[in-house]
Write a structure and sequence with these properties.
mainly alpha; 2 domains; single chain; 70% helix
């Protein structure tokens, strides 16, 4: 995900009207080929998609970008993963994407600050101010990281564990849909 975000950062910084799905799909394919995702079954990789939401005036690519996973072309999966379920998935995914965007922005600004530390140190009185800035910056990064880990481990992982345990005990499609 981080590599995809690195690839997309400049593109998503553009005005929403300057963003094209086919360009973003090229970045997604590059990210897949450059990661361990390339070893997954191609059937699953082909379901990854990018949606561009309707833009409001002043929106950038970040606001309209949405990573998506299509299940609608498989009748069994679309029965289990209804539109309601997929909407919840999209909301969770969008929130995690925004959280990763904040993390990416913090990492990028940290790198820029470190790269220019010597120049900042030459400005009278700025060394102490930048030290305070770096402390606040580190606290923000720590907070974002903790929120992300909490959601991934305590919320999503535990929900998946419960779902998986219940799924093992089902006997028919109606029970699966109910789970």
């Amino acid at each position: 995900m981080q590599y995809l975000m690195d690839l997309l950062a400049d593109e998503l910084g553009l005005k929403a009207s300057e963003i094209y799905r086919h360009t973003l799909m090229g970045y997604l394919e590059t990210a897949i080929r450059s990661s361990n995702a390339q070893y997954h079954d191609q059937e699953f990789l082909n379901r990854l998609d990018i949606k561009l939401l309707e833009a409001s005036p002043g929106d950038r690519g970040w606001e309209i970008f949405q990573l998506d996973y299509r299940v609608s072309d498989l009748p069994v999966l679309s029965t289990i993963f209804s539109d309601e379920v997929m909407l919840v998935f999209q909301k969770i995914n969008n929130f995690l994407w925004k959280l990763k965007r904040v993390d990416h922005g913090l990492s990028t600004s940290w790198g820029l600050g470190i790269a220019h530390t010597n120049e900042f140190a030459k400005i009278p009185g700025m060394k102490n101010r930048f030290h305070k800035f770096y402390l606040a910056h580190q606290e923000m990064a720590h907070f974002v990281n903790n929120i992300h880990n909490y959601i991934m481990v305590e919320v999503l992982e535990s929900a998946w564990s419960i779902y998986y345990k219940e799924m093992k005990q089902i006997k028919n499609l109606d029970e699966l849909i109910a789970v």
